[in-house]
């Protein structure tokens, strides 16, 4: 006989499908039965008619691939689950991820039928991997009618990856995938490796097959019989209860014996590769009624050599003989024989036989805890990374993007040493799942929208060398434990994140509530402000003890430079003569407001500053001066104009700010500064930066406070055109700048003022949101906030009116030359209109506004049209004058 013919195995495995038998649904013992390519839209599962097992769609076990079915005229040749298939035109490696019990023995079976599903009549060749290891090359050019691979394997983790890998040009596919846990983990043991099925047969002349439910583990058995053999049979029941192999009882109804009793019963085949190692499992039961003088005793020979001597099958009870060590075939010729012993009166008998070759899966899978952790992280952030399939680290060719692994040798499970989820759109908090990554050295979560605090557990991860959390929205204080030697921590661009101690210290202090409750209470608050100012003046150390929000590149840097910074701090308070000197006698006036003039100045001969001089005649101004100093000393954010120092000498009061050489947003919009840079992308960025500054005032400060005078002239641009909010604290009850004010008690600027203020006379955070909405509308339309010549004089009414007519080009600033993504414009328009909602409860808060703007900016930047000079991300470009703010001691 020749078992080497390709169709022999095929017939053995596939021929069975022609027979249909009806079986009721059974206890399924943890079976996984996938009909690959079965659409979820149809009933996503069905009872397969041969086995009565429920087959389901594979969709939830794999991320990639497309579904199809074999050519219609072939559908009669194959039964379900072999009529559908999933094919993989795009990715190199595509993996099913199945949950299994580690240490349990499984039968794993995968079926592949091309069926000309694509009409190209081109049979593919591709690889099948189990985790990181090659399982088989699926050559459908050789097996044109399809093929099935089956192994007995004990997974080393609780997750099993079955991967279809394109190795060449043809498209991998799969038709069915089945997993069957076996009852005894110690059955089918090998010295090493797993077992790859060559053939599983029962000896019966009648064509047929056995599988579930006759075989409780759903092994597939095919009938087999040769000429020169005689069939014997029984009607009695054979017991398999005591067998660890549980061969199906129906395989023991018949047996083969050699027709010439003294001749051996021989099964032979040729081996593809001389190195193949075999395990054979022969199943026997005596099914004949032996007379008292009858004896059946035989030797089992491998390659002509007796391997089992004088075996006597047990009467009506199954027994299994197998080799403990693998055997090989001499010169590729394999021979298995049973020969009766001289004292035996009866010929040898064989009921059933399984032949396996050893398959090695030498490459260790990635450390299971690492895999679980990275999957949990993936789940926690809802990441849909298409290449995150199969084993994360091996083969190295398919290592997941964003990971680096240690890969000592194939026998050592790789460990994940670096995880880069930068710019991955992560939201929510820093996932707890990260803490189980014990070998992680580098963690990069930068440029995301992570919120919440920096968790303590990062400090417990001793292997960490670099943590990059920059460019997110983290808040709270940094755990002290993280500030250890050897750990580089990058946290820049988290406007609300504070160094350890700062936030808590700040919150313990009773700072004035800035929101003006009513006109009557202004006086009280002003009095409190004055008092605090005086107190602080006497104890400058309390002020200096405060820490700024963290915005330097690394924590270690801040600490290393701390002695340098201390020198700078002492110079925060300036004498009047110093002020005169730095402004060269107030020579260059750059602005004027209700409180006095703003002069350009130079500090230490190089640093440009803006000196705001309080006019001595303005008694109200004096109070505001106090308020502003008090607040500005406590508030620090990259998108707020920072206070460099102040002067408080007798009647001479002055504030010294960082100089903003690029003027205000209004000037840029009006073209006064030359309109070259102010394209849509830059407008978005400026809007976002201003929003971040305002968000910080609302939610990053303790106590939070309200700007009260958001408008385009209060958004200033520094030398890098970064936007910063100015003049907060100034507008308490006092209109600023050249605008006419409505009444002496109204804060803010007409047009920007929250309409609810007229009823409530209260300005809250949502009033700033309203004003910010107006600013956004100005940035979109470049129209005056109030223009009596328009159909609708107020900008929000006008935009609403035009929006109803559905044409945004009419609304848009013509200076943008239609160079924008209209989806992002629509989003910002909607955002602006919701901010400018007349009812405060319907307005978003600034965090929502900032997030929305961030997303718009990301998509605008992705469009790739942004002027490169200004294509910088607002959250990663933070810089502040560390000179002024020492570390708390
Ligand atoms: C495929 O099936 C057809 C029809 O059953 C048969 O004629 C042919 O020999 C088979 N081919 C192989 C390689 O088994
Ligand atoms: C096989 O191993 C698995 C996992 O160790 C265990 O849960 C199961 O009970 C074992 N089965 C048998 C029959 O020993
Ligand atoms: C993949 O293809 C290359 C060349 O075609 C071959 O050398 C290599 O052995 C193949 N790998 C596997 C795992 O089949
Ligand atoms: C599993 O089989 C081994 C021998 O194959 C046997 O020693 C062991 O008792 C069996 N375990 C169970 C749980 O049946
Ligand atoms: C084996 O052969 C007998 C007849 O010799 C038949 O009745 C029986 O159904 C066959 N068993 C299987 C499982 O095909
Ligand atoms: C039966 O087999 C024995 C041993 O192989 C052989 O010597 C004998 O000639 C055979 N008898 C017949 C009738 O073929
Ligand atoms: C065994 O006994 C039966 C009758 O019981 C007889 O026909 C047969 O020849 C005996 N066989 C041998 C080998 O003695
Ligand atoms: C930040 O992430 C966005 C996508 O989320 C990306 O477009 C942008 O280039 C990233 N910026 C930096 C500085 O990495
Ligand atoms: C970390 O691992 C332990 C055990 O390995 C587990 O109990 C715990 O739930 C894991 N924590 C997270 C957050 O995954």
Q: How would you characterize the overall build of this protein?
A:
- This protein has 889 residues and is α+β, with helices and mostly antiparallel strands.
- The chain folds into 5 domains: 6-181, Galactose-binding lectin (Jelly Rolls); 198-359, Jelly Rolls; 368-517, Ribonuclease Inhibitor (Leucine-rich repeat, LRR (right-handed beta-alpha superhelix), Alpha-Beta Horseshoe), CATH 3.80.10.10; 542-658, Phosphorylase Kinase, domain 1 (2-Layer Sandwich), CATH 3.30.200.20; 665-884, Transferase(Phosphotransferase), domain 1.
- Helix content is 21%, strand content 24%.
- Strands 1, 2, 3, 7, 10, 13, 14, 15, 16, 20, 23 and 25 form a 12-stranded mixed beta sheet that branches.
- Residues 1-27, 500-570, 731-746 and 865-889 have low confidence and may be disordered.
Task: Kindly list the characteristics that best describe this protein.
Jelly Rolls, 18 helices, binds 2-acetamido-2-deoxy-beta-D-glucopyranose, disordered C terminus, 889 residues, Leucine-rich repeat, LRR (right-handed beta-alpha superhelix), 12-stranded mixed beta sheet
CATH fold node name of the largest domain: Transferase(Phosphotransferase), domain 1
- Overall strand count: 42
Largest sheet data: 12 strands, mixed
Helices, by number, come to: 18
Task: Please report the distance between the alpha carbons of the first and last residues.
Answer: 90 Å
CATH architecture call of the largest domain: Orthogonal Bundle
Task: Please name the fourth-level CATH homologous superfamily of the largest domain.
Answer: Transferase(Phosphotransferase) domain 1
The structure class reads alpha+beta
The whole-angstrom Rg is 40 Å
- The proportion of residues in beta strands is 15-25%
- For the record, the count of structural domains works out to 5
Q: Regarding CATH, which class of the largest domain?
A: Mainly Alpha
List of distinct ligands in this structure: 2-acetamido-2-deoxy-beta-D-glucopyranose
* General form: elongated
Helix content: 10-25%
